[in-house]
Amino acid sequence: MSNLRVVVALGKIAFDVYLSILRDRGVIQSRSAYVFGHNRVHRVARGSPVLVSSYHPSQQNTSAGKLNEKMLLEVFRRAKKLAE
To answer: Where does 11-76 show beta strands of DSSP type E?
Structure first.
């Protein structure tokens, strides 16, 4: 995946795991500089894909109204724009 430009993390667990991988590979020093939030853009390191975080599209989040279809589509529209 040498042409990877954007990573979308669906949920805080995915977000934390991705940042842990970057830390373990020496790409970042610490995860603490990155705060999870919906539709947030994180420029991790020069030459690394941009990270976009999103609430997880679980039934719990969609039923409670924390995440809806429009919100999730906005995440992927943003990711597409960042990848161009």
So the answer is: 40-42, 50-54
DSSP state of 33: T
At 35, list the tokens: 């705060």
pTM over 0.70? The answer is yes
Q: Which of 21, 25, 23, 24 has its CA nearest to residue 33?
A: 23
Domain boundaries, the chain: 6-83
pLDDT tens, residue by residue, 1-39: 678 999 999 999 999 999 999 999 999 999 999 999 999
Residue from 37, 34, 30, 50 nearest 11 by CA: 37
Which helix (H) or strand (E) segment holds residue 8: the answer is strand 6-10
Q: Across the chain, what does the average pLDDT equal? A: 95
User: Which DSSP letter does residue 49 get?
Assistant: P
